[in-house]
Amino acid sequence: MSAQGDFKKITTKTLQLMKDRGEKIGALTAYDFITAKVMDAAGVDLILVGDSLGNVVQGHETTLPVTMDDIVYHTKAVTRGVERAMVVADMPFMSYQLNVDEAFRNAGRIMKETLAGAVKLEGGRRVADRVWRVTEAGIPVMGHIGLTPQSIHQFGSYKQRGSSESERKEILEDAKILEEAGAFAVVLEKIPKELAKEVTERLKIPTIGIGAGAGCDGQILVTPDMLGMNKEFHPRFVRHYARLADECDRAFRNYLNDVKQLKFPTDEESY
Predict the structure, then answer these.
(1) How many Cβ atoms from other residues are within 10 Å of residue 78's Cβ?
(2) Phi, psi of 129 (to 5 degrees)
(3) For residues 200 and 175, is the Cβ–Cβ distance under 8 A?
(4) Angle, CA 93 vertex, CA 201 and CA 133 arms, to 5°
(5) Domain 3-240, CATH homologous superfamily name and number
(6) Can you name the residues that pair with 4 across neighbouring β-strands?
(7) Helix 128-136 crosses helix 165-181 at what angle (to 10 degrees)?
(8) Contact 144/124 with Cβ under 8 angstroms?
(9) Which residues of 155-181 are buried (b: 16+ CB within 10 A; e: fewer)?
(10) In the chain, what are the domain boundaries?
């Protein structure tokens, strides 16, 4: 039985029930009202307002320049368009790394100002005290381990994580630490599929994979990537479900041609 048929609103409890049933969780990113509205109507379970907006909306090379104000602005737009899906907001770089109190204050601000259903932050053991403090206050927290884009300068590249035995052990430990700290789910990014499956089997909470194989409890992609908006970006884990860059190019050119050839607007399109 589908959770979509059982619940009018997706919550942390719904996601847990989906894992327990063996029903996969479908998640995507959104950064604006109209995309979120269409996505929600299509039945997407979880919508992440990711700090990936720094790349796909703002044009930055990394997610690091994204601010709290950016996340709050975009999350408010998304929640206005959503009735059913659970909306999760990323906590941007330096909004939780400084100390526990800073993390608590910023998580509270996101929840209060945006009406999101949860926040997400990156890291395992090093952020466990933040996860515990925030969840103790009643704010659901989603973890994120494996490739963590906010740590790109520490890692030096976007290569796969968890290939070495030491990294594999660290990821397994971090996943369990996040669960024990109170996280309701954890994103596993760009790790070997066998490792992701092992993490998923060991945890009671749901795992959401991106570039981590089919063994996770759910999957997430950055929406402009899966819609084919960026022709230059095509990593192996992204499947193009549309080619919107080509469609947009065709529409823009047809519009410009009609304007210049006096074919638009017609009398029927005028007042």
Answers:
(1) 28
(2) -65, -30
(3) no
(4) 60
(5) Phosphoenolpyruvate-binding domains (3.20.20.60)
(6) none
(7) 20
(8) no
(9) eeeeebbbeeeebbebbbebbbbbbeb
(10) 3-240, 243-271
pLDDT tens by residue, 44-85? 999 999 999 999 999 999 999 999 999 999 999 999 999 999
Residue 189 is a catalytic residue: yes
Its sign, for the CA torsion 169, 15, 62, 104, is: negative
For 118, the token pair is: 């949860």
pTM surpassing 0.85? yes
CA dihedral 84, 29, 97, 171 (to 10 degrees): 100
CA distances from 125 to 128, 176, 201, 236, 253 (A): 5, 9, 20, 29, 51
Q: Which residue is catalytic, options 113, 189, 201, 269? A: 189
Alpha-carbon span 183 to 181, nearest angstrom: 6
Q: Two tokens at 258?
A: 């009609």
Task: Give the span between the Cα atoms of 210 and 267, in whole angstroms.
Answer: 50
